[in-house]
């Protein structure tokens, strides 16, 4: 597949993340020569079909939305196939006659959480994978976060061994349309992916707790929500600027002040270790998902 080309893309199971990636790729005015000539999305229900059609309406001439009964048709006509359905659905999706055959020879991008490239290989070629041409499966495992919907995602991706340089460039291009994309080794993918995919929800839980305190003190949540969120964003931006989180925390916590009292209370409640345990539990779950069939 040439990198200087217009791609035919299929998004199988086009939920929220799949839709965000589709919008990003269709919106792109890339100078690399890559672009989307035609995009076909498949969904489970008619209401979902209307939702995706509406989300992609700015590119209606290049978009077709089908129901999941036509997954085979969508994959067969594509150069690049994005697998964006829930991992628990994979056995059902791949059991449809002709589906796995339709994927062979295509670039496969999988955002199924916890599903390794080895498992994608098994799903397509069976327990002893081998393509008709003898070449390795062209597949890339990825994990974007929900900020893809505003094109501020962090996406991690890792290729199946033997994936060509050209196909890696296509994968990087696709995920770069919704934010920043980073290639990492698959042996560190589970922990890194849950940091990208789950950490945001944990931080949102912390923000929700802060807002609860404001309500308890008599302040309406809408009055302080932006103050808390924007303050947190500003502080987080100091970390990539060069400050270690613990150093920043020390700078804020002046002797005898309010911040150190709050931090000591969190330490007493075990909040730091609770965050660590939560992420480690999520990583362990990710490691087992490929074997849960």
UniProtKB/TrEMBL annotation:
Pfam families cross-referenced by the UniProt entry: F420_oxidored (PF03807), P5CR_dimer (PF14748)
InterPro entries: 6-PGluconate_DH-like_C_sf, NAD(P)-bd_dom_sf, P5C_Rdtase_cat_N, P5CR_dimer, Pyrroline-COOH_reductase
Domain of life: Eukaryota
Binding locations of NADP(+): 12-17
Domain Pyrroline-5-carboxylate reductase dimerisation: 186-289
UniProt keyword list: NADP, Oxidoreductase
Coiled coil: none
Record flagged with keyword Oxidoreductase: yes
Binding annotation for NADPH: 71
Residue ranges occupied by any Pyrroline-5-carboxylate reductase catalytic N-terminal domain in the UniProt entry: 8-114
GO biological process: L-proline biosynthetic process
GO molecular function terms listed in the Swiss-Prot or TrEMBL record: pyrroline-5-carboxylate reductase activity
Family (UniProt): Belongs to the pyrroline-5-carboxylate reductase family.
Protein name listed in UniProt: NADP oxidoreductase coenzyme F420-dependent
Organism: Aspergillus sclerotialis
């Amino acid at each position: 597949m040439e990198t200087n080309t217009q791609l035919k893309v299929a998004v199988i199971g086009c939920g929220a993340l799949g839709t965000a990636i589709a919008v990003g790729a269709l919106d792109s005015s890339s100078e690399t020569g890559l672009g989307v000539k035609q995009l076909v999305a498949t969904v489970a229900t008619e209401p979902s079909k209307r939702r995706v059609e509406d989300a992609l309406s700015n590119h209606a001439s290049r978009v077709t939305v089908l129901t999941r009964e036509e997954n085979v048709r969508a994959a067969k006509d594509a150069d690049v196939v994005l697998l964006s359905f829930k991992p628990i659905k994979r056995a059902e999706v791949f059991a449809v006659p002709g589906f796995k055959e339709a994927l062979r020879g295509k670039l496969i991008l999988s955002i199924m959480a916890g599903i390794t490239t080895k498992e994608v290989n098994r799903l397509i070629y069976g327990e002893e994978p081998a393509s008709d041409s003898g070449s390795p499966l062209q597949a890339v495992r990825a994990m974007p976060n929900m900020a893809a919907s505003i094109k501020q995602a962090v996406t991690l991706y890792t290729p199946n061994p033997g994936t060509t340089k050209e196909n890696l460039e296509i994968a990087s291009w696709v995920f770069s349309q919704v934010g920043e994309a980073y290639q990492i080794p698959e042996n560190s993918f589970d922990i890194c992916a849950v940091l990208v995919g789950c950490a945001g929800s944990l931080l949102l839980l912390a923000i929700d707790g802060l807002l609860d305190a404001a309500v308890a003190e008599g302040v309406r949540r809408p009055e302080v929500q932006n103050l808390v969120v924007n303050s947190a964003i500003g502080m987080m931006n100091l970390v990539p600027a060069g400050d270690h989180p613990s150093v920043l925390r020390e700078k804020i916590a002046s002797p005898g002040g309010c911040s150190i009292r709050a931090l000591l209370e969190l330490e007493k409640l075990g909040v730091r270790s609770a965050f660590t345990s939560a992420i480690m539990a999520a990583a362990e779950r990710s490691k087992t998902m490929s074997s849960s069939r």
